[in-house]
Amino acid sequence: MKSDLFEKVKDARAASIILGQTPSGIKNKALVLASESILKRKNEILTSNKKDIEHAKLLLEKGEISKSIIDRLKLDESKIEEISKMISSVAKLRDPVGQVLYSVKLDERLELFKVTVPFGVVVSIFESRPDALPQIASLCVKSGNSVILKGGAEALESNRKLFEIISDAFLASGLPNGCLQLVEGREAINTLLKMEDMIDLIVPRGSNEFVRYIQENTRIPVLGHSSGICHIFVDSEADLQKAVKICVDARVQYPAACNAMKILLVDSSIANAFIPLVAKELIEKGVRIKGCPTTVSILSKHGLSAEAAEEADWKREYLDLTLPIRVVGCLDEAIAHINNYGSKHTDTIVTENMESARKFIRSVDSSSVFHNASTRFSDGYRYGLGAEVGISTNKIHARGPVGLEGLVTTKYILIGDGHVVSDYVGKGAKPFLHMEIDRDWEARLK
Predict the structure, then answer these.
(1) pTM of the model
(2) What is the mean pLDDT of residues 412-425?
(3) Are 119 and 201 in contact (CB under 8 A)?
(4) How does pLDDT run across 59-68, given as a tens digit for each residue?
(5) Does domain 231-377 have CATH number 3.40.309.10?
(6) Are the C-beta atoms of 346 and 227 separated by less than 8 Å?
(7) Helices (H), ranges, 76-222
């Protein structure tokens, strides 16, 4: 198995050199064909996904997985249409490769350019969601990167079928063989983590524990987030009907998503009016409320039940219909709570006070901060990035939903004409001009 895996990585490395120089038109053609093929072969995808669902239900009965895994795993015609649209939207985006970010004349006929280039070989290790595979494959190819995909065993059949369809489309469009690879088996992960001389970037998507394991067991750069502890703070000057709508969407629309609201904070001055209002709608939709003492007391007066929250609940990422609610004294207390307990993913303030909104946005240390909008908007496709390889809570390279711009790095290109450093140092040294120039470096080589 190790020999086979090594050959796949070796092929991906060779393909990355070709793919990094492939014209945009060819890459876009491959993506359009993949998008069309997904729709044409949707019945094959649904049949494969049904096998995964049936197997997952057996694991659920044994207590080996949670219901949220099945929620993430399931595909239907609507999701397949979304996958197709996502791939075609990536094709329409500007190619991120070869963009000149900086250009300067150092001296006559000595010119420097900073240009975007692909990373090379990207490994994506993801759990549960088969729709992650086409997202990641599309973004990596568009950005000129070969990609090695390692999905979870629970989505084995779905991943195989999606890989087959997309790979066929890529190769038929003229992309290099080996640019898209699928590996299976848990043992492959540890082998990949040790291949720092052949792999340039790892993008893990999964549980807190899973991502942390990846980060702690490789020398390869890792781009990802460990958990999605997302908050909504309903301020004292919130429109309560607007706040209810936002909170219900953020918790109920897709409970297992990393960008779903996990903690609700409510200003004490409106707690008596707002908490029963929002709790009633949430409970009707199957949400289990866990509350601070004030929340529990307020709800009991209205005949609504809530469990007592524990300290650990403020740090826990509930992926089911469970919502801890906490009453805070003011905006500053809400900000402090989020910066202390949050995972720097996505946090929202609901308020009609623009000064409070500005303070929240400036002070909350998260990769996405919203005003009067559901946390569920934190998504590469919804941001107009085409798709996302994942959401990063890192503070270097890329942060938030990571699209094409997060899959390229840079290199400097210096074009001279016999220039040497010794002419620019010591007595009588020539001065540098450092003048901004136009950004067409290739024209200098004609």
Answers:
(1) 0.79
(2) 94
(3) yes
(4) 888 888 888 7
(5) yes
(6) no
(7) 77-92, 132-142, 156-172, 187-193, 208-216
